Amino acid sequence: MSRVSLIDRMFRTINNEEVLLIHMGGLGDVCLSESLFFSLSVHFKDSLVACGIRRFFNLFPQYFIRIENIESAKWLFLFSQNAPHIKWKRIMFVGKDREGSLRERLSRFSQEHLIFIDMYPEFKTEDKGKHVEDFQLEQLESYGIKALKIEIAPKCKDRFVFYPEKGFSKKKWEIDKFLEVYRRLKEDNKNVFILEPFDEMPKFEGSIVIKDLLEVKKFFSEGGVFISNDSGMAHLAGACGMSTVTIFTDFDPIVWHPRGKNISLEDKNLDIETVLEATYKIIKYKTEQNTKTEIGKKK
Fold first, then answer.
1. Best exposed site among 44, 229, 236, 274 by fewest CB in 10 Å?
2. What per-residue confidence (pLDDT) applies to 209?
3. Which domains does the chain have, with CATH numbers?
4. Predicted confidence band of residue 168 (pLDDT cuts 50, 70, 90)
């Protein structure tokens, strides 16, 4: 069987009326694009197919009729120079494409004009002060698609989850400092946990290990406060309704802060007392919200 015939066979069940969303981002990028997914799902109704890193998109299945894994070899043809043999009704591409070469290739597979959403603003542009979510939704509006922003209500709960991951590609606030904040809250009789990252890390008292992202989402959906460096997990926690205290070292918190209730801190000689102060500020906010809810119930 020829290669072309094999590709045709692999995709023979694809309906040309389907709309294909290609998203090139990691965990945090996918979480920040949730309002974009929601807007597209409302606009295109029951025809939206996602193609991205499946374990991340499986966190948001409600917006798609199907989720395809872009890491699978069967999708390599999208990025090749081969002539297209399949065309979707429309293709949307969310990613970075400074030269336009990816858009040119993907346009060959789209019957209608390709929609390109630049994933995040460049450092030296007039858009650099915009949050990623707003930046994406503004672009969507330019294609005549109504932008629907999801408002995340904080899930108030007396629970504090620390995620002190190590720094590899990005600088991080030190693990020992997180552990000191953890210890101080524990001494104050707070309900505290350490969520161990996927990489190797010594086990500490109160630490928990969750390897499955769907289980992590369930854990986060119980609410509380999530304290961490800037990370994909912080974005997932925020998307699930946890209030977040997030420490930034290399990136602009105005652009990259988690959605929902968030306090962002910049790691410029950041001390333990400042992180504690931010955490107690979140606690005060949670207490005030709970009080308002109780008053509302009494009425």
1. 274
2. 86
3. 14-142 (3.40.50), 160-298 (3.40.50.2000)
4. low
